[in-house]
Write a structure and sequence with these properties.
Helix content: 40-55%
Mean pLDDT: 84
Number of domains: 2
Structural class: alpha+beta
CATH class of the largest domain: Alpha Beta
CATH topology of the largest domain: Trna Endonuclease, Chain: A, domain 1
Order of helices and strands: EEHHEEHHHEEEHEHEE
Strand content: 15-25%
Distance between the termini: 68 Å
Length: 201
């Protein structure tokens, strides 16, 4: 058995738990769970007075082939010759930058490249604000490093020494780090749920 013709199409039949398990090479219990928890889009039908969840074969194949269309971090570490942890931190940093720019909804906030080749993650031209992002708000040294980078960028004469600086983080750091930022007049920008908060010294 393993599949059903009832309500199915010739090239895209409805599959039961056994067929899903066979196609994905997983245990039947896992296939059953995926049919119940929404991992696979199901069609509910009644067979011999029993409620059954079925799924189109095309949806099963889409789930099976999904990893093949992705570049996985472990593969990239080999291709680029970098450690997994470094790549993971980079992806996290880029993610918070992308989400912050989307939240601001302004096109003038973008990466800035200096004449010496150094790059600030973001530069807000309207507010004259240099923003350096970091991947981990719980790592005090990493946050301090971001502050130092932003200070260095401000010292370059291309933008002007009157520009303000900020650190962009995926969450709010501890109070000791916040005090450090305030001492050096550094803005704190961090993700807070689906939004971002900006705290000025």
């Amino acid at each position: 058995m393993g599949w059903t013709d009832g309500g199915g199409e010739l090239n895209d039949p409805l599959c039961d738990t056994e067929r899903v398990a066979s196609e994905l090479r997983i245990a039947a219990t896992t296939a059953c769970r995926w049919l119940c928890d929404g991992t696979l889009p199901t069609i509910t039908t009644t067979v011999q007075e029993r409620l059954r969840r079925l799924v189109r074969l095309s949806a099963v194949w889409a789930l099976r082939d999904r990893p093949a269309n992705r570049t996985l971090l472990p593969d990239l570490t080999i291709d680029l010759g970098v450690r997994y942890h470094e790549l993971y931190q980079l992806v996290r940093r880029l993610d918070v930058v992308k989400d912050y720019v989307s939240w601001l909804d302004r096109r003038d906030v973008r990466k800035h490249v200096f004449k010496n080749g150094r790059e600030a993650d973001l530069y807000d031209r309207e507010r004259h604000l240099i923003i350096e992002a970091k991947a981990n708000h719980r790592d005090d040294v990493m946050v301090a490093h971001g502050m130092g980078q932003a200070m260095y960028y401000r010292s370059l004469d291309q933008l002007g020494t009157d520009d303000r600086i900020a650190v962009l983080l995926p969450g709010r750091p501890g109070d000791e780090v916040v005090r450090l930022l305030w001492v050096y007049d550094v803005w704190l920008i961090y993700r807070d749920g689906d939004t971002f908060k900006e705290e000025l010294p």
